[in-house]
Amino acid sequence: MQPRRSLRLVVGALVLALPLLASCGFDKATDKVYTPGAGTDDRSGEVDVLSAVIVSAQPGSGTFIASLSNNEADKEFTLTSVAGAGDSSDLTIEPSSLSIAIPPRGFVNLVDEDPITVTGDFTPGQVKELTLTFDSGDAVTMDVPVVYACNYYEGFDKSASGASASPGATESPSPTASPSPTASPSPTAGSTGSSEPFDCSSVGEG
Question: What are residue 84's DSSP bridge partners?
Fold first, then answer.
C-alpha cells in the first residue's frame, strides 16, 4: 500500500504545481514591448517610429518630435517628409521636404535635428494624423497625440521662437512718414504664435 500512497502524493503535488508552471509560460504581458509615455509607436516598417508627439506651447502650433530606429544592418534610410493625413491634411508642416538620414542599425532623435513645425487648428489633448515618408518608398501613417510643452516636453516646441518676432520687423519706417491714427495692424497678422502660451502650472500636465 505504501507505493500507492506515495504515487497519490506525487500526483497531488503536481496538480498543485500546475498553476505555478503555467505562469512561467511565454507570450505574457511582461514579455511584450512597453514604452511608457504619451507618444505613439509604429514598428511596421524598416524604420521604427517611436514616441511620436506634437509638442505645443501655444494653441495652433507645435513641433513634431519622434525617434527613428533603423532595423536594417546594411541599408541607410532617409526621412523625406512629414505631412498631415486624413482629417489632418490641412495642417501646415515646415519644412515640407526633409533629408534626415538614419544609418544602418542607427537611431535618430528628431529633438536633435532642425525642428519640424506644425501649424493648424489644434490644441493639446487632441490627436492628429501624420504620414512620414522615407526614401525607400515606405510611408507610415500614425495617429499622433498633441501634448503640452511642459515638464518632460518643456522647451521642445520651437515653433514659437520665430513667431514671436513682429511681422515686418526688418523694415524700418520712413522718418518722414507719420503713422495714420486710423491704421492698426490686423489682429490675425502673423502666425498662430501670437496666441498666449500655455501656463504649465495650470494645465496639470504630468
Answer: 130
User: pTM for the complete prediction?
Assistant: 0.69
- CATH number, domain with residue 83: 2.60.40.1890
- Nearby residues of 186 by Cβ (< 8 Å), 6 or more positions away: none
User: How far apart (Å, rounded) are the C-alpha atoms in residues 89 and 97?
Assistant: 16
Establish if 53 belongs to a structural domain.
Answer: yes
**pLDDT given at position 12:** 60
Please report which helix (H) or strand (E) contains residue 202, including its range: helix 200-203
More confident residue, 71 or 29: 71
Please name the residues in contact with 68: beta carbons below 8 A apart, sequence gap of 6 or more: 47, 48, 49, 50, 79, 100, 102, 107, 108, 109, 110
In a domain? residue 51:
yes
Structural domain containing residue 131: 35-152
Is residue 50 domain-resident?
Answer: yes
98-137, pLDDT tens digit by residue? 999 999 999 999 999 999 999 999 999 999 999 999 999 9
8 Å CB contact between 166 and 122: no
CB within 8 Å of 74: residues ≥ 6 apart:
104
Task: Residue 185: count other Cβ atoms within 10 Å of its Cβ.
Answer: 10
Number of domains in the chain: 1
